[in-house]
Every structure is written in C-alpha cells, then in structure tokens.
Amino acid sequence: MQSIINCYGTDRKNIGDSLSSPLNYFELPGAKIEKLDIRLPVKAEELEGKHIILGGGGLLFPRFLPEIATIINARKRKKLIAWGIGQQIYVRKKGKLFPREITDEAINSFDYSYLENFDLVVIRDFGILGYDWLPCASCMHKSFDKKREIKHEFVVFSHKKFLLNIENFPRLTNECNDMEKVLDFLGSGETVLTSSYHGVYWATLLGRKVLAFPFSSKFYTLKHKPNMYPVELWLRKKKSFIDRLNFRYKNKFYFPSTHSWQSLLKDSQSYPESLEECRHKNQLYYSKVMEFMEL
Predict the structure, then answer these.
(1) Which residues contact 233 (CB under 8 A, 6 or more apart)?
(2) How far apart are CA 177 and CA 197, in angstroms?
(3) What are phi and psi of 99, to 5 degrees?
(4) pLDDT digits over 38-59, tens only?
(5) In sequence order, what are the residues at sequence separation of 6 or more whose Cβ sits closer than 8 angstroms to the Cβ of residue 152?
(6) Which residues of 46-82 are buried (b: 16+ CB within 10 A; e: fewer)?
(7) Most buried of 35, 61, 134, 248, CB within 10 angstroms?
(8) Alpha-carbon distances, residue 208 vs 6, 14, 38, 178, 201 (angstroms)
(9) Where, residue-wise, is CATH 3.40.50 in the chain?
(10) Which architecture characterizes domain 2-139+277-292 according to CATH?
(11) Number of CB atoms found within 10 A of residue 263's CB
(12) Are the beta carbons of 274 and 224 closer than 8 angstroms?
C-alpha cells in the first residue's frame, strides 16, 4: 500500500481554506492517505517514502515557503505533486493595505521557480506562462448541484479580516463553516458583493454576477473574472476596549468608502458554464495523478 500525504494550509475559521483540499473530493484507491497542515511545522522525517500532494488554497505565499522548502528537500520522498495552488501578493504600509499597487507586472513576475522541483504541477492562477490552469477543487462539492432561487438583488459576503461596510443588504462572512448555508446565501443574490476570494469563485460557479473588493493578487488570477471595485486601500480596524481587555483582537481591515459601486454593475456578467468547466478540469487532473502515481 502506497502512502500519500496531502499537504494543505487550513484556517479553520475560513471555510474556503477548509474545503480547498482536493482529497476532500477524490479518492485514491489502494493508498493510505495522511493530511498535514502546512501552517504547522513540517518534519522531513514524516515525508520519507511517501508521495506528497500539495493542494488547497493560496499556498504560494512567503509564510509557507520554509515548509515547502522542507517538503522539496525531504530525503527519500517519492513524487511531489502540486494541485491547483496559487499565489498571494500583499502590499502593506503602516497599517494600510494597498491593492492598487498589485500590478499586472507584479502578478506576472511572481516567482514560481520553486515549482520546478515538483514532478507534476498545475496552478489555480490563470494565464501564467509555462503553467497549466486548474481551479480550486472545492468546485467538486456536492452542494453546487442544488438549484437556488434568487431572493435579493444584492448580498454581501465579507472575508472575516477584510470587512465591507455596505449596509442594507443581507450579510455573511467566511467564518461560517457550513458550506450549504454559504452557498444558499450566495445563491440568494442576483449580484454578490464580496471581499472573499472563495466568495467570488463560488458565486461565479453558482451563475451569479460578482463585484469583488480585492485585497491581494489572487483576485486578479481568476479565469472567470468578476467586476473589480477599484480599491485604493484597506485600513486597519482599530481595537475596541473589549477586544484589548480580552486579548481577542486580531488584525482586521475595512474599506472606508464604497461609494459609486453601483455604477460598476452595468458591465457585470455571469459565467453559467464555469461550474462544468472547473469540475471537468479537476476530473482530468485526477485521472492524470492516478496514472502518474500508478494507482
């Protein structure tokens, strides 16, 4: 029996991270599967004699590079496979975050060079020269098969750390860990206003129009592009007295002004074919992985 480790990065309070691992959806018959959270220290000895699948979310991020280096350099490991991982670029200055400085040049010049040491590679970033595109495996979740009725003109789905101050519409954040509930919420809107990468992705798969409020480069690497609000900066949210007293506060940002967002909706479009396309790409890659590892 072959041993396979799925290395992933999961924030248990971010539903997108927790559902992005491909081995949540694909079986590898005859293999013993282990999961390894890349947010924890990775020990080289745990990898010896095992195939490794690095998959699930924006793992091409400086925070994870030491662990990825450990994986690459592990002695006696077997095949190393990348499954739909992607880049993240942030520009921070004195408590502010500047998506406007995440240029096309920066995105296209991102250093993917350490992927040269992988045996099989696809990335979720679309249009990057030299790499095939594979969208997040969460498109395989069975809840996408449910038909949903539009009940609202707009719904607001915020990333838990990047909060949208758009009032008077139904609201939810990606701290909700119930996929059925999240998709019901996204599907209830004709247009989804969101600062969450997976909010954009999942709403698109549901055939909804999307207006995205980006905070990193990953929003700009989607194949099925949403309308983008021209965000100039995100401001660090100040700690409340209760947060300071209870030591509960973590970095959060908010966008101080969302005026005129309605004017951007005239060019919004949906991508009704996106779910089938994304699932088909993942199914093809699954077959390729099975063949590659001779399972």
Answers:
(1) 96, 97, 98, 99, 100, 255
(2) 15
(3) -65, -25
(4) 888 888 898 999 999 999 888 9
(5) 169, 170, 188, 189, 190
(6) ebeebbbbbbbbbbbbeebeebbebbbebeebbbbbb
(7) 134
(8) 32, 21, 33, 20, 10
(9) 2-139+277-292
(10) 3-Layer(aba) Sandwich (3.40)
(11) 8
(12) yes
Q: Which residue in this structure is represented by tokens 């495996």? A: 137
Q: What are phi and psi of 275, to 5 degrees?
A: -60, -50
C-alpha pair distances (Å), 278 with each of 208, 221, 285: 15, 15, 11
* Amino acid, res. 276: E
- 31-37 sheet: strands from edge to edge: 31-37, 2-8, 51-55, 80-85, 120-123
- For residues 166 and 141, which has the higher predicted lDDT (pLDDT)? 141
Tokens 């004699």: give the residue: 49
Q: If you search the block for the tokens 């979720």, which residue do you land on?
A: 124
Do 151 and 188 meet the contact criterion of CB atoms below 8 Å apart? yes
Give the model's pLDDT for residue 247. Answer: 44
> Is the pTM above the cut of 0.70?
yes
Residue 239 confidence (pLDDT) = 57
